Amino acid sequence: MFGLTAIQLFLIILLTELIALDSGGPQTQVISKPLVVGTLIGMVLGDTAQGMFIGATLQLMSMGVVGLGGASVPNYVITTIITVIVAIQSGQGYEIGLTIGLPVGMLYVNLDILHKILNGYVMRWSQKLANEKKFKESISVLYLHLVLMSLKFLLPVLIVLLAGQAVTQTIVDAMPAWLFNGMTVAGKILPVTGMAMLLNYMPVEKNFLYLCIGFVMYAYMGVGTLGVAIIGFGLAFKYYYDQTHQVAAASAAGNAGGLEDE
Amino acid sequence: MNKVLTKQDVNRAGLRWMVMPMSSFCYEAQFGQAVVYALAPALRKLYPDDDDYLAAINNHFKYFNTQPYMCQIVLGAALGMEEQLGRAGAETIQDFKTGVMGPLAGIGDTLFWVVIPTIWASIASPMALEGNATGLILWTLFGIALTLFRLKFFEWGYNLGTRLITELKSTLQVLTDACSILGLTVVGALIPSVVSVQVPLTLNFATGTSMSIQEQLDKIMPCLVPVLLTLICYKLLGKKKVSMTWLVLVVLIISILGSALGILG
Fold first, then answer.
1. Residue B114 DSSP label
2. Which of A46, A59, A210, B132 is most buried, judging by how many CB atoms fall within 10 Å of its CB?
3. With bands split at pLDDT 50, 70 and 90, how would you rate the model's confidence at A248?
């Protein structure tokens, strides 16, 4: 089990379960994101700095990857958990970890679809019990969702942990240099997929100007992202102000016109 | 107006909503089951008669989906309507829920799933890459503050009822557009800042001089490769309807080929 102590193993499973319950429930934006998860797992394994580094890298990769409207998307939090464990415990760093972590995060999509189909069966069961006036049972059945959700997160992590170092080491040893280099490049390109998804959620054509402003400020003028965010906030506020005061302005203009006529 | 529900009943329903919205997601009814789970105890109190209660439950099992934070407001208002209108209001409540779903999802998704995480990640991640946890800690504190703030959402919805939603709806489009402006400005800066791929290829001429492709590209425009890649992926995801999973696979293959051939690095 990757040379994990019992306490480390327990903490990893506990954290994974917490993430499952948060992602399935309140979605607090506190723990269930790669940056935080990477740092926490790193802390558990005694290398916080590397955990935070990997978490930040995966956070950038996952930006914009959100399953809106029930779409199933790769789970970068599970990728982070596995990447950090493999990277630190094998002592071979981030690219090796990503080689194992990224495919698992992508296979998660299939589990997610299966989960949402199974949830349909649970609903029919619950509704059937309600129609039979077994109201208590009808609600109790819904707790199955929490079990399924936990399994969806725990299974991928546990399988990798159980397959353990031997299997991972075999994969790593068999990994040729070109694959290693390819993963490094992939790490640099993958954020593109998130950006592209973000843009698809936003009115790009209508607001293309603002995309250009942000790009020019960063790429040509060297303003940091925080500086760009401040300008963006100013522009957004101006738009909001203009729109909400348009009605008042229009009526004022109407009055002025009326005076001229006299 | 007859008040049957206490403040505790309302808050309990709000907290129960937070238990399983995503866990119980299914394709047919989406959040239907989570809505039933959240409202069940309050509805039971409103409808002591078994048949009324069953009718109310079955009504809420129906398709419902908007951004989960926004659901709190909508469901709060829906519970208020159940209390005031009773069984006679079944259709009104259903119409209200489906009517506000779309617009509230628009603003909720843009604001809570896209703009806020994008801005925080773009501040905290580069700091973390340099070993600085300040951004990470600030983001976490923000997350806690947001969660505490959200605990009030359900009660707001309940107290202000449909009035809140109508008021919200009028400024909704403007607010969504303003959020998109902020988001797009930040994304414009993010593309060059987080996509760091380059072209390490160097052409060697017989005359002994050599030419770096990356330098030539930089003369055209800084970060040309990231911009082109973003454009291609944008088109693939949008117009071509390629799924995210396939896109990630394609990127992996291109990366491996590109680095093996020395084109990308």
1. I
2. A59
3. low
pLDDT in tens, B118-149: 888 888 888 898 899 999 999 999 999 999 99
Shared-domain flag, residues A31 and A102:
yes
Average pLDDT over residues A37-61: 94
CB contact under 8 A, B21 and A27: yes
Is-contact A60 A93, C-beta < 8 A?
no
Domain carrying residue A13: 6-201
DSSP string, A190-227: THHHHHHHHHHHS-TTTTHHHHHHHHHHHHTT---HHH
* A161/A258 same-domain check: no
- Quick one: DSSP state of residue B30? B
A201, A223, A251 — which closes off a domain?
A: A201
Contact B12, B41 (CB under 8 A): yes
Indicate whether A140 and A256 sit together in one domain.
no
Cβ distance of B184 and A204 shorter than 8 Å: yes
**Global pTM value:** 0.81
How far apart CA B263 and CA B65 sit, in angstroms, is: 45
B26: which strand partners? B30
A-B contacts at Cβ under 8 angstroms: 351
Q: Is residue A1 part of a domain?
A: no
The residue out of A201, A217, A234 marking a domain boundary is A201
> Is A192 found in the same domain as A69?
yes
Q: Which residues of chain B have pLDDT under 70?
A: 1-2, 162, 164-170, 172
The answer for A 120-159 residues in CB contact with B (under 8 A) is 120, 122-123, 126-127, 130-131, 133, 135, 138-139, 142, 145-146, 148-149
- Is the CB of A59 inside 8 Å of chain B's CB atoms? yes
- Kindly state whether residue A186 falls inside one of the protein's structural domains: yes
CB contacts of B37 in chain A (<8 Å) are 139, 142
Distance from CA of A256 to the nearest CA of B (A): 27
**A195 and A71 in a common domain:** yes
Question: Three-state DSSP class for B250?
Answer: helix
Beta bridge partners of B204: B210
Count up the domains in chain A and report the number. Answer: 2
Q: Tell me which residues of chain A, numbers 81 to 100, contact chain B at a CB-CB cutoff of 8 Å.
A: none
- In this structure, the answer to whether residues A49 and A59 fall within a common structural domain is yes
Pair A91, A220 in one domain: no
Convert the pLDDT of each residue in A83-142 to its tens digit.
999 999 888 888 888 888 988 888 888 888 889 889 999 999 999 999 999 999 999 999
Residue A262 is predicted with a pLDDT of 40
